[in-house]
Amino acid sequence: MLESLCRIALRCFAMTKPACPMCEMTDVMEHPEKWECMTCGHEWEREAPPEAGRVVKDAHGNILTDGDCVVLIKDLKLGGGSQVLKGGAKSKPIRLVDGDHEISCKMDGIAVGLKACFVKKA
Ligand SMILES: [Zn+2]
Q: Which residues surround ligand 1, an ion (CB under 5 A)?
């Protein structure tokens, strides 16, 4: 069971190999720190693995973790803009999530997604 899961993960990973930026072929060899195109020999640096070891920092550079509370540093409009969260409002304990709104939490009883750059650690 475990082994078959590993194989599936490997196969998925293989499909995420990039195409060569020079010739756009996908026959690419993986090195620890770079990619090498088997077609034209072009080598380029690998990007850091997405999300792995991701650090979310607030507006002042403090590292945020699950369970922290945050305070808004500016007014934020919600959705259509009919509701506004006031700067200085404090959240319930946060949860860090993927995406460009890194923080999922409740504020004023409303579930919201916030950008870390608009908050500071409470
Ligand atoms: Zn190439």
A: 20, 22-23, 37, 39-40, 42
